[in-house]
Amino acid sequence: MKLGAFSVSLAVKDIKASKRFYEDLGFAVYAGDIDQNWLIMKNEQTVIGLFQGMFEDNLLTFNPGWNQDAVEIDPFNDIREIQKELKSKGVKFDNEADENTCGPASFMIKDPDGNIILFDQHR
Q1: Which CATH superfamily is domain 5-121 in?
Q2: What tens digit of pLDDT does each residue of 21-33 get?
Q3: For residues 122 and 76, what is the distance between their CA atoms, to the nearest angstrom?
């Protein structure tokens, strides 16, 4: 199963303060819009997302179809294929992708400790 790019998505209280903090750690803005309260930052192959007011908890995020540079990869496992495989293994879903669609979609699950994992396909 190819899960694609991995990042940690942080629910931050003050995106400008968080941006400065992660810049001090060597991260640079890679994508996003601070005026819309979200930024993607990179330090080499490490990717973090900063999101103010968009969700309550931190998330682990996988982006099927992308590598760590947000470049499309082929072949890749479509999010609906990943969802079906996880369902067959008894994984419980917080929300699901519509399996009758194609293209961009997402679903969320939790690990045994309650950590939220977002699968977010953009293509």
Answers
A1: 2,3-Dihydroxybiphenyl 1,2-Dioxygenase, domain 1 (3.10.180.10)
A2: 999 999 999 999 9
A3: 12
